Amino acid sequence: MDLIANLAHGFGVALTFNNLLFCLIGCIIGTAIGVLPGIGPVATISLLLPITFGQPATTAIIMLAGIYYGAQYGGSTTAILLNLPGEVSSVVTTLEGYKMARKGRAGAALTVAAVASFFAGCVSTVLVAASGPLLTSVALSFGPADYFSLMLLGLIISAVLAQGSVVKSIGMVVFGVALGLVGTDVQTGQQRFTFGIPELSDGIGFVSIAMGMFGIAEIILNLERPEARSVMSGKVGSLMMTREEVSRAIPSVLRGTTVGSLLGILPGGGAALASFGSYMMERKVSRGRAEFGTGAIEGVAGPEAANNAASQTSFIPLLTLGIPANAVMALMVGALIIQGIQPGPRMVEAQPDLFWGLIASMWLGNLMLLVINLPMIGLWVKLLAVPYRHMYPSILIFCAIGVYSLQNNVFDVYQTVFFGLFGYLCSKLRLEPAPMLIGFVLGPMMEEHLRRAMLLSRGDPMVFVQRPISATMLAIGAIALIAMLLPNIRKGKDKALQE
Amino acid sequence: MKLNTKDLLSAGLFIGLAVVGLWLNQDHNLGTARRMGPGYMPMLVFWLQIILGGMVLFFGLFNGPDPLAKWTPAEIGFLIGGAVAGVAAGMIAARIPGFPSSGWNSLGIGIFVGCLVAAVPPGWRALFLPSAAFTLFGLVLEPLGFLVAIIVTVICASFADKEHLERPLGVLGLIAFLCTLCWAIFIRYLDIRVPLWPQL
């Protein structure tokens, strides 16, 4: 069995002292920011990107991945205990989880959240391992036209699934692509939109955009809102679940894992979407649906399984096709490119250490998180005693040092301020920054593929509909767009995302 | 009419930036569809953005009302004042020989002054003081070193939260904590190339 041999290789990589250490660090940081409202995985990963440059690529990605799925574990803790979602993906956990805590079953809710996450993490890790090589072999038969259409589909879906107006989100995607044009044209070497600034000839700094739009802009928005943090009331109680709770939770965990794994693979999907999807499903089909709203364990088990499954399967499009499914994955692309690795279908073969090591580390990381979270829950809750007025100067300093150390150039610092102010403006105008970041990452690759496809077809744009793979992608994209124009579906989406 | 102000402004932003982009794109050779020049993709992208901006504009005429938050006259005044002061400070700095005009310092001085002026009304402090602090870090880091940069940045940023003013000791504690932590991570462990102490 190739798979087993490969996984064994992966564990060999992941179990080296350094990788194990950074997996643990990633999981701890992830849990911490999951617990803390006001700082999410996107901001944290962009903050820590510069720190990872000195490390080998595998170690860097292992740590960054740990932050992402670790945040899914941590987010549920405060959601259950304090009715305070630490992450967007744990918003739905507050609905049933906090009610369970009010009924004195906080311990059971925490246990089911952690165990459901662990189970989903194990299943989705296997899924990533199995589908990776499979999808890779498919992807190798892709021509430039197919790639272009695939990326276009990814952009469309990421815009369609973003919060708020679809047209505005597509506008942000296009704007992101436009920002990606800045810099030296790869084929002719001509400088485009650089205004003669030498620092821009390599393009606008990816880290500057991410830190500005997600780090600084978020600080400003948090400062504008008055701080609302309740103190934990009551006790966690016994962590043990009753027999009835176990039997009710099991089917929900299975359903949540399935829903989450599928929604995670979808471009534009990810942990937040998965937990919403699972909650909607549990409310319709689970045995305890009558109890929803009063603390049904299904409403914790399903979404928690789903968000963790999705946070791991969303690596599939990245690792096999080189296409980021959401903003966190866009950051991973950034991290890989800075390490000199071009994400894409050749990565599985060219970087077996990275691919299999990452998969093995995901499983190990889930195991660590189970241990980090359950027995030490009290410790994490204490973290909430750190007020935001102490957090934000620290985040600012870390951003500033990180962005400067990229190229030892203060221009990057000023560029980041600019994107911070721009990000604030965007949020005031309800323009989503995440689709823009994905557009920025995919834009330059799309231009390359578009040029190559048109060169091969001798300038005939019909090539995009003549190739079956490409035509399918475009058809799916068109359907997704048309579906959003139908009022019923759009209302359903808005409801799902706002609840 | 149910005007959606946010959408109309978004549309203006999209269309305005795209028009500027198209104008700048005149310098680039378009090429043909078969052999695309450096200007081909930008042309497609900016036209698409204009179309999308037009759609946002059209929908924005009907799906409102969604007004912006009300600004006080002081907020508007100091926002404009900040922009003017920032540009002026940057231009003056660029003419003064020595530190203010070397490298990107004039840009930094411009942003810093602009943000400080705009931060005068209390409503803008959350927005412009962290931005000013971040810029200050860039200005101070190379001449005065890592530790001074952390200290001034934290002090400047802490004015953005009223509670810091009531408890100045907390800020001191934070500075001590951050100086130690950042020294350990960035200087000791990562060994980034940056002066630690003032360069005199």
Could you characterize the architecture of this molecule?
The complex is a heterodimer of chains A (499) and B (200). Chain A is mainly α and 499 residues long. Chain A contains 23 helices and two strands. Chain A has helices spanning 2-14, 17-35, 41-52, 57-82, 91-102, 106-139, 144-160, 166-181, 206-224, 243-265, 271-285, 298-313, 315-321, 327-338, 347-350, 352-373, 377-382, 388-407, 410-428, 433-456, 463-466, 468-485, 487-498, and strands at 183-184, 191-192. In chain A, strands 1-2 form a two-stranded antiparallel ribbon. In chain A, α8 (166-181) crosses α20 (433-456), α9 packs antiparallel against α18 and α10 (243-265) packs across α11. Chain A is globular, with a radius of gyration of 22 Å. The mean pLDDT of chain A is 84. Chain B is mostly helical. Helices cover 69% and strands 0% of the residues of chain B. Chain B contains eight helices and no strands. The model of chain B has no long low-confidence stretch (mean pLDDT 87). At the A-B interface, α8, α9, α18, α19 and α20 of A face α1, α2, α4, α5 and α6 of B.
Order of helices and strands of chain A: HHHHHHHHEEHHHHHHHHHHHHHHH
Q: If helices are DSSP runs of H or I spanning 4 or more residues, what is the number of helices of chain A?
A: 23
Strand order of the largest sheet of chain A: 1-2
Could you tell me the mean pLDDT of chain B? 87
The Cα radius of gyration of chain A reads 22 Å
Number of strands of chain A: 2
Counting H and I runs of at least 4 residues, what is the number of helices of chain B?
A: 8
| Distance linking N and C termini of chain B | 64 Å
Low-confidence residue ranges of chain A: none
